[in-house]
Amino acid sequence: MRDDGELNNGHAGKGLQVIHVALFRMATQSFAEAYRTLGYKTHHGVEDILGNPWVEIEQAAEATWPTVPNARPRPRFTRSDWDNLWGDKYDIVTDLACPFTDQLIQAYPDAKIVVVQRDFDSWWNSYQVGVLDKLFSPGQQIFVFLIRNVLGSRAADAMLKVNYGLFKATSVAEIREHAREVYDEYYRKIRETIPAEKRLEYTMGDGWEPLCAFLGKDVPDIPFPRLNDSKARSESQRQGEVTVLLKSARKFALLGVGAGIIATSFWYYAQA
């Protein structure tokens, strides 16, 4: 995985410098590359699926939405908690922070606010394929099982709680039912809370100029990144799935589990 800090001189616990307001599947890969080009230490979670701080993200979800399925009681996150999760290490978090935007704005009142909004219909189609299907489709349950029970990662549990909480749901059917309402409310709350002069409303295709002017950065002499987020995410997820299978196979082998189980896992993967 690419080192998020390799293009800058470090972070040193300054807290988040920019709050990127955009839901999952809204050009976050392109913006991660843009922010890095401008010198920000940037976290983009899809690049290292198993390496994310899933325990802390799950705790943040439980603290934010205490009624989500299987939530354990815990207090609301404080600035110290957000620093421990992201603020002590990064300037910007482009995707995994999106469900917690309102809390992060309160925790980091001096951070600049960049708002990116994608048309609902195109976004929702992408979200269902790229996020919901990975969590809820029958063909993906082998990975949920392996991640949770073999590798001991909280990735699937954290993302389930984040999605249930964000969409005020207890099932995938309710997520779909509430999607439009949540989308509208997410952006309405930001615009009601943050004055227009204190936020940048960025539309993909605007290029470097408005972003650099808002952040006080020089305009790079290269085109604004236009990465294929769907393709990049699919490739990253595919690589992550291979990693899950290989790590699970090694663990099965160490535990003396039969080759049939390993072969079955790879068969499921090949059919996906």
Automatic annotation (TrEMBL):
Q: What is this protein called?
A: Efflux pump antibiotic resistance protein
What InterPro entries does the record tag this protein with?
A: P-loop_NTPase, Sulfotransfer_4
Organism expressing this protein natively: Hypocrea virens (strain Gv29-8 / FGSC 10586)
Source taxonomy lineage?
A: Eukaryota, Fungi, Dikarya, Ascomycota, Pezizomycotina
Q: Which PANTHER family match?
A: P-LOOP CONTAINING NUCLEOSIDE TRIPHOSPHATE HYDROLASE PROTEIN (PTHR36978:SF4), P-LOOP CONTAINING NUCLEOTIDE TRIPHOSPHATE HYDROLASE (PTHR36978)
Keywords, alphabetical: Membrane, Transmembrane, Transmembrane helix
Spell out the coiled coil positions from the record.
none
Q: Which residues cross the membrane?
A: 252-270
